[in-house]
Design a protein that fits this description.
Shape: globular
Order of helices and strands: EEEHEEHEH
Structural class: alpha+beta
Distance between the termini: 36 Å
Largest sheet: 4 strands, antiparallel
Strand content: 15-25%
């Protein structure tokens, strides 16, 4: 019988995930189904001088948008995010009061957001778990902000693009 591979540890060793901080979060739709919207190319976007690709949200994508904006409270804020056709990227800031006795509030925040969306649409669309990255400095914050901002432009190069 073949030996199973050990699952890669996703958490940073010795980091207190209950502490205040900045995090880059990615949440994916199960099986990369493009349920959240579609990238529209060649359209004029309000506030942009030229044509610029953007994501036109589906009804489910609109529910996701509401859920993300609902997180901007109780010592949690989401200053930047993008809803792509089959995944979400966001910068999530946890205030000092967001921590819960050594446990990561990230898991609870993502779980409750997924649960809210599931309840609103009547079924779950989510891949298990999520990806998080601790944003360690201003340079990294700016790079991630730019990545989120440019994600619709680079959709066809994205690792989540199915085609």
């Amino acid at each position: 019988m073949r030996e199973l591979l050990a699952r890669k540890k996703m958490r940073l060793q010795d980091y207190d995930y209950s502490s205040a901080g900045y995090y880059f979060i990615t949440i994916c739709v199960k099986d990369k189904y493009e349920l959240l919207g579609k990238v529209v190319v060649g359209a004029t976007v309000p506030g942009r001088p030229q044509t610029f690709p953007y994501v036109e949200l589906s009804e489910i994508g609109q529910v996701v948008d509401i859920a993300i904006n609902h997180n901007n409270r109780n010592h949690v804020s989401v200053p930047k995010y993008v809803i792509m056709p089959n995944h979400i990227h966001m910068i999530l800031i946890l205030g000092q009061e967001a921590g819960n006795r050594g446990r990561s509030p990230l898991q609870g925040i993502v779980r409750s957001m997924k649960a809210y969306i599931t309840k609103q649409i009547g079924y779950s669309i989510w891949q298990k778990s999520f990806h998080d990255h601790i944003i360690r400095n201003e340079e990294e914050y700016r790079r991630i902000w730019r990545y989120i901002d440019e994600n619709p432009v680079k959709w066809e190069e994205d690792c989540y693009f199915v085609g």
